[in-house]
Each structure stands twice: as C-alpha cells, then as structure tokens.
C-alpha cells in the first residue's frame, strides 16, 4: 500500500499545514513546493489515500490556493473530520460554509472508505424467549441517509458460509449516537435500532447446526448500501456474553467475537454438570446425552503443569443423561500456587480418544463455588461469559451476593468474605482512570460484609465528603496497614447474579448505574449531569450558536456568574470576589458554575451545571461575569456587561506568545489571544512583574488592573487563624505536628494516552515517613491535570488533599511548602513561611520542556534540592533553611508580592461595580 502524503511529508511541513492561517509567506511557499514535489514523485495515490478533509488541504496546498486553505483549516479546527455529503448517486464532499469551494472529482468524490459505518450495540435483553438487541448505526457524515429505495435492515450473517437471515429491525431514537460520534455538525439521534430475534428464529438457528452468526446492519445511502458488523461495548449487557440453553440440548452464546456481535450455536455432546472439592480431591462430573460420543479424559493445564484424569462412568443416572466422573488430587493441581494476590488460571479441556480437545462447557444450572487452599488463597470454581468452566487459584475474594438501593440515593452491597481474611481490612472505592480513592466504612461479622455507598457524600481518605466525579469507580478490600494499592483485592459479583446488572438508582442531584466489567467486576458510575438536549459536542454547538445568542437579546439581570477553573472548584479569586460582594450586601443574584464532578459549592448561591441551558442563560444575561480561566472563543461580551478575568498565577514558566518556537507552542492558540482577551472588561494582575509579561504574552489590548490577586488576601485577614483552625478540624489534622504541603506542577512530557498527565513521584514517601512521621504530616496536592494514586495515604503521614476545594485553605494550615515551578510559590510567599523547591528536573524543564522567565537558581526564596534524601534533610532542619534564605525571601516578596496589603479583593470589586447600577456597594473613599 502506498504511503499517504501526510506520512511522506516532514514534521515541519505537516506543522505548517496544521497552523497554515498563522504561517509566514515563506512557510507557505515551502509547504506548496513540498506538497507539489511529493505528488510529482509519488503520484496521486499518495493524495487519494488520505481522509477526505486532509485530502482537500493537501490538494489546496499543492495548488497554492492560500485563501481557500486558510478557510478550510479554520473550518476543520471547529470540527475535525466532519463534513457534508452531496449527491444521491455519486457522493461528494462539501465543507460547512464552503459549499462553493471548487474541487476536482479526484479530491471531492467520496468512496466507501471515506464514509465508514459506526454500528454499536448498547444493550442485550430477553423478552420471554425472544432476544432483543438495541443500539445505533450511522454512516459518518451522513446524518440523513436515503431511504427511498429501501430502509435500514439487519441480518445474521454466517461467519463461514456467508449465508444471511433477515431480521426485523425497528428504527428508534438514540441520543447516544450523536454524543458518541464526538462531532458537532450532524445529529444522529434517529439512527437507533431495535432488532428482535424471535424464539422461533433462535430454534431455527440451532436446527442449522453449530456455527457462528454475526449481526450486520445495512444503511442505504448515496451510491449504494453501507453496512458493518455491529460491535460490542466494553461493559454492561452489551459487553458480556449471554448463554441460552434450548430444549433440544443446543446452547446459544449471544456474545462477541473480535469485537463483533454474534450468536454462536453449540451442540455439545458433553457438558460439565458439577465441579466440587471433597477430601483433598477435585471431582468433576460430566453428562452426555444418549448416543453422544464421550471424551475419554479431562485435562487441566496451568503453565508447564499438565494433569490428565480419565472420565469413568457413574451408575445410577435416573434421567436421559449418562454421567461420568473425573478425579484430580488437589495438591498436585495447585503445587505451583504461591501466597499473594497473583491469580493462576487453569485451562480445562475434554480429551477424546483421538487426542483432540474441546472446551469444558457448563450444563444449565451449574453452580460456582470457592474452596479454601491456604491462608489468603482459594480455588475458584468459576465460569466465564460464554459458559465454560474456569478454575483459578487466587487471593480470597470478597463476593457480593446482595445489592440494595435504599430509596434515598444510597447503595448497599453485602456479601461473603471469610472472617480471617476480612480482619484488619478496609474498603476502598477507586476511580478507574484518575485513581482517586474514597474509604468506605464497612461492617464485618460472621464471614459477611456490608458497606454503603452514598455517591453524593462519599468520604475521602483525607478531607470532606464529596460526590463521586464522573467515571467508573471500582471496589476493593485493602489491608489497613497497606502502603499502596498493589495488594488490593477486588470485590466481585457472584457469577449466578451477573444478570441482575445493570442496576440504576437516583441520588438528590443525579442518577447512578451499577454495572460490571471483566465479567464480574462491579463498578458504580455517575450518569451525566446534563440533559439529553445539552450533552455532547453537537448539542453544545446548538446551545452556543442559537440559545446563547437568543438569550443575549433579553434584558440583563442583576446577577453575577462565577467560574473557577471552569466549574471544578469553589475557590481562588472568584471565591474572594463572591465573599466580598456578600459581605457588602450587593443586591445581586450569585450564580456559581459547577462541572460534572459536583465540587463543593456555597449553599447560599444558585448553582448551574457547566454546559447546561441554565449556564448559557446565566452567561448571556448576568450583568457581571467573574472567571479565572478562558470562557470560550464563542463567548461575546454584550453592552452593559462587566466581565472580570482574575486569572490564576504568576508566571515562572513561559506562557502565551513567549512559548513560540518551543514544543509546547500552538500558533492557533496564540493567534486567538487578542480576541480572547477582548472579552474581558479588565484583567487582574498580581504584581508589576506579571503585568508586563501578561500584556505581551497574552496580547492584552485592554485594561490590566494591578491590584494583587484577591485570593491572596486570605494571608492578611484578621480571621485567618480562626479559618486555619476550621480547616485543620475539617481535615482531621493531628495537633502538635508540623504540616508540610507538597504542590507540584505537571510535566507536559509525562502524559497518558488520555488528556491527563502522569504522577511523576520522586519523593521516597516511605523513607520520608520513617524519618518525619512522628512529628510531621505531608499534604499532597496533585495538579488537576495529573492522575495517579499517592502511596502511603491513610497511614498517618501522607494525606491526599487533591480534592480539597480551595488550596488557599491549605496554605493557611501549612507550616512549609514544597513545590517546583508552580505559581503556588508566589502565593505562598505572602505567608512568610519557608519553602523548599524539589527541582530534580530543572535543566530539562528549563532548557527543553517549558522554559523559565528568570534564573530560578539565584532568585528562589528557598533551597533547590534534587533528591528525596536532600528534601527530607531540609525539612528536618527547616528553621536553619528559613534563616539562610531570609534575605532572598524578603527580596522575592518585594519583587512579586506587592501589592500585598489584603485589599486586592476590594480593588477588584470596586473596579467591577464602578459606574454601574450597584456602585452604591463601593467601599468608602
């Protein structure tokens, strides 16, 4: 296969194409020449193999059509990969807003590969004996496919012969399709389907003999029919196999092969009826129908260990089955088992006289069991989704057998866990991506456990109760003295009860789903906070382009809408402005933005979900907007509205335009800065140093108010000691111990596949606890972009305070700060308390990754340490450190902490209200 033009071009040329609207004339000429040369060398095949949008861009680049290319690149930035399709017989590409763009057929003509089909199963259910599949299927960028000749259809397609059986398909509405598409141009809500496979049809499939049938959906469109096999999900009923036993002895596995939905017809001559452990022996009983050829032996394999046992007839069968038994010595099977949490899987097969093996399929009614092997270890006689016998030695697992929803938004899980295993264990609820943890109270008695999950008031290991953030939360048991999660034992569901999921229940603010992954692993997941008409890129675009602008035509209301980190917190300078307006008694409504994580919000204010209709209405009609981050390029300030940008840091690492030329720079972002900052009535600066940098780096044309950050007034208020005492009590900090706050920034080159960054932990926390734990506590504050579990939490020394609402509270209780290149150092300097800088990667961060504005080695108000040992030593002798850096600290405050008089909030609020209808709330003088 010929390489595409994008693969052949250099990285520099590809970057010029990506940022073409911001490129120089020389870069444009270089792009044109490179594209033309590559086409001349490799032919049109290098171009036509690209996705349609990229094909258009490279064609325009090679033709030197700069004005058209600028429009196309900007269109694709708004919605990459989305386009319009014209033509009923010969589909052609058209770009939104650029329908008249002249393109040759070889570029605009669309082939089947340009219009891929998404066919997704969302649920599997049974109505009596009828199988019901639900899902959605659409052709990418074809939201309204032609249905004049024939409608959508579904068939079962035999995996080997290609034979097809037509099924009844009913079109349904499914908003998940539009959301899952990830694009904002097309609505796919009407692409849902329901396919019913009747009991008669299932019997017909069984009558055709063994084989595998795949679910295929066809969609009529321009130029023909588009179709694909339907794919599975990764969890829930659409992600796990279902076994159905028929009266004639056939069994149907409604499941998945290579991610495709299928029905597998099996007619096993022999099935496993029971598998038990008695007197040190594993007894396996198989049954065979009359006339069936019976295997001669059972083989169990684990690693290099292979054990065979003959199948011998059993007498006394009182029904139509003949029964056989195979016996294994248990000690021989588990000879390689070791203590710990490692699981050993055993493969069980039935062996015929010819030496060939077949799966050990389970009879209907087979019961799973668990058997004690040694302290901490068990043998699980299990089953998998397709109904095969599974044997495993593993850590003794807690198994849920009862799930109850109380009606008040609380989930109660009960199950079995031997008392000797459950002793000195706690229950941990852990996020599957962020690894954030909650610790749940658990009741243990007589080999059973009970714990309750209140998802909107879930207790943190350290800190206040907070709601579960979006994502899947899994349940584990952990030793109370465990250092980290490496020894966690997962909580699973009894295999016979997996059919009870999914289970849904509602809390005061949102609904929740209990479901499973990996067959029997339970998780709880908050459902989305936004409504069906608000969720996803498409509906957000409609709200921005239509609803927001409709609301802007209505009169302004006397209200203030606040955004702190996009709704992630009630914190920072917006919090300070809010509290000052409340103190002054300003006659305005206070509206706080809250994101899907349901962070803590002030009970006196109205709270709106970010992205909701209420939120767009508040932004369009509130007289005042106070934010510390960008609102969005779509936001337009209306006449009479005051928008205050408090911002959120003092720059040590380079920002904005000053990143040009570095790997972190984005010319499109930089080009949009003037527009972004025109949204704001004024921008708050913490000091003269920042004023100069922000005006240049962010291309700020309007006013900068050098007032100091309102958030730093907390260091000067008369009640700061009382506030600190409340924070200590809320966190449960022990009296008499020195509090160390560790608040590092993130590393752009330490990234997961997702948009989150890795926890780059270089402190040896175990060694630090051994040295400091008797008289120190360490508050660990991860950056919001970073995920990863912090070891040692819950052992009395390390406290994970990442989800604590406002870091300003933590500054008040901290006796010393450890940071690196975070702007936290500029804020904490207002406290006059010592700081240590753990800059183990200074050269790389400064010279390669991000760049710094000044020589940190000479101006830092504390020591720069490179190793964990040096850090612990500095903490042990922090008074000497403070004395050593007293003069540098004082100079640092003069450079970066003025104004620092506790009046920053008053200055910001006065400026916000000046000349407006609420000027009566100005401070005197």
Would you write up a description of this structure?
This protein is of the alpha+beta class and 925 residues long. It is built from 27 helices and 50 strands. The termini are far apart. The mean pLDDT is 93.
Mind telling me the C-alpha Rg?
32 Å
CATH class of the largest domain: Alpha Beta
Q: N- to C-terminal separation?
A: 76 Å
Mean pLDDT: 93
Uncertain ranges: none
Level-2 CATH architecture of the largest domain: 3-Layer(aba) Sandwich
Give the structural class: alpha+beta
Shape: globular
Largest sheet: 10 strands, antiparallel
State the helix count. 27
Number of strand elements: 50
Count of structural domains: 6
* Assembly state (oligomeric): single chain
- β-strand percent reads 25-35%
CATH third-level topology of the largest domain: Rossmann fold
At the fourth level of CATH, the homologous superfamily of the largest domain is CDP-glycerol glycerophosphotransferase, C-terminal domain
Helix content, binned percent: 10-25%
Tags for this entry?
925 residues, alpha+beta, Immunoglobulin-like, 6 domains, ten-stranded antiparallel sheet, seven-stranded antiparallel sheet, 27 helices, 25% helix, globular
Kindly summarize this structure in a few lines.
The model has no long low-confidence stretch (mean pLDDT 93). The chain is an alpha+beta fold and 925 residues long.
